[in-house]
């Protein structure tokens, strides 16, 4: 059935008569239609010209969807206004007819402003002594909503919605212009995608979902009339919170109007009016805390996505603007998380049965060559509910501050504002890479005493963890045994500032005042303790830095997505400083060290894991010799502990995956985890790599050249 009324609503008044009626109205009431064609035209012309182009193309805010890697499973949504733009061809004729019947029965006869409606409103308002009836057509209402949705300042929002004669003049003039540019079907489509129906439902798709759990194409006349009746006053006619008496009365009014306009037969209208309002409510998820219970362990990953998004200049000039884009831009975002790897990470996070413990054990898995983050897991629940959390372990926190366990939304794994945790000897990778990239060889040897006093670093005298490390060491044995005095001498040779700058090129950032001070150009040369990992780092940073070594020295920025599509289905892009347009979701990689230097570092990094390097000797023992047997394939990595074992780390990688795991107290970095728990990160990484790669062909590391072996 056509949407146009089968029963005539009257012939359109001639323009001259319209002007006369409007003139009368202007003289008496606040509906100055005459201003549209006369007195007010000059006053509003400039503003109208500015806004009309917006109205031709303006699209309302739209919900962004976050999908699992299959591109079909919706994990959650991001929105301020729950809305999904729907073409009119995908809407039931019932809702199109119902909204015309409820709001503007002469919609198909007028040209944006309805003279009969203005006259009717004048008579009604004159009798009541106030404003008891409006004269806004669907087109005028659309203009108002479009101006509201395209507003960029609170002042523009106020100007678009305030009840003033000037606003009404602009609205009428613009409605006439819009009807010259858009067809009735286009206006109706935009109206139904902009209207507010209550319960955060903006547009007909959201309303259909929230009230009836269906799509707009399947709305029945009863359902359509119920929704159309809400637009006038969503709170007054709300069928959810009220006893439905007012909602039913309003719905029946709409059904009667549909019958009078020929959209429904009298019998069909009577049958529809006899039915009760039957709702089937849906509460659409919003933000990371609303992820379906089946995927609640992905909350930390979702939170990482948000933090990553807020740092992307492609989405705006500042964090506020970028997050506004996420909640209003209608993006389709597919995560890069791998369900198999994520499941392995969740399963193998150590201390998982002690969520009442202040010690957090987490793991991040990155993909070499792309930077895509494949898994993030920690022995915490992603939840805003902290009511059952224990007391904070930091004595300076105060009695009313809850701990971050068992529930938290803090970015414990990285990607947010937290500084991270001291990463210990995992930092030895950076001076080793810098040395190899500068032309030094794996065979570079130093006599490494138990304690070494540095002549360069103002007499600083670090010692080894064990006297068994004393002796002449190479990069293989020095890295495998984690010999502090070897690496201090190596750092002296290559320059601490070179190691610091290389770590920055591999994605590390300094988030504490102390770290920023030591890493400054003035002081970096004297930061001898850098090689011992005194700086804070996050598992996200460390996993991705080591992934660059696995990728033959090619560093890729950490990225949480496989794809990002705009609301029109095209890939979201950004323009580089050089003027090149690129997809935001594509890997962003650059060569940081030579492939041969990275392969040489990997050869040395096989020693800590109990693996056998291609070219050299590990010196008889290593710090994590169980890893090779657990993973069951070539693997490299490095352990790390801090003073008094306040934190413990392990970063390991194969050619396919790189994983970093830590254990520490996020609330109190001085609360030592102790030597008894230092094996937990080692096991977490080894078991996660084993399980994630199960069934895949075994890949070998590429050996370094003889030249760099020395």
From TrEMBL:
Domain Penicillin-binding protein transpeptidase: 363-666
Entry annotated with the keyword Aminoacyl-tRNA synthetase: no
Catalyses which reaction(s): Preferential cleavage: (Ac)2-L-Lys-D-Ala-|-D-Ala. Also transpeptidation of peptidyl-alanyl moieties that are N-acyl substituents of D-alanine; [GlcNAc-(1->4)-Mur2Ac(oyl-L-Ala-gamma-D-Glu-L-Lys-D-Ala-D-Ala)](n)-di-trans,octa-cis-undecaprenyl diphosphate + beta-D-GlcNAc-(1->4)-Mur2Ac(oyl-L-Ala-gamma-D-Glu-L-Lys-D-Ala-D-Ala)-di-trans,octa-cis-undecaprenyl diphosphate = [GlcNAc-(1->4)-Mur2Ac(oyl-L-Ala-gamma-D-Glu-L-Lys-D-Ala-D-Ala)](n+1)-di-trans,octa-cis-undecaprenyl diphosphate + di-trans,octa-cis-undecaprenyl diphosphate + H(+)
Domain Glycosyl transferase family: 75-258
Single GO molecular function: serine-type D-Ala-D-Ala carboxypeptidase activity
Alphabetized InterPro entries for the sequence: Beta-lactam/transpept-like (IPR012338), Glyco_trans_51 (IPR001264), Glycosyltr_51/Transpeptidase (IPR050396), Lysozyme-like_dom_sf (IPR023346), PBP_transglycosylase (IPR036950), PCN-bd_Tpept (IPR001460)
GO CC annotation terms, alphabetical: outer membrane-bounded periplasmic space
GO biological process, one term: peptidoglycan biosynthetic process
This protein's UniProt keywords: Carboxypeptidase, Cell shape, Cell wall biogenesis/degradation, Glycosyltransferase, Hydrolase, Multifunctional enzyme, Peptidoglycan synthesis, Protease, Transferase
Family the UniProt entry places it in: In the N-terminal section; belongs to the glycosyltransferase 51 family. In the C-terminal section; belongs to the transpeptidase family.
Name under which the protein is recorded: Membrane carboxypeptidase (Penicillin-binding protein)
Species of provenance: Micromonospora inositola
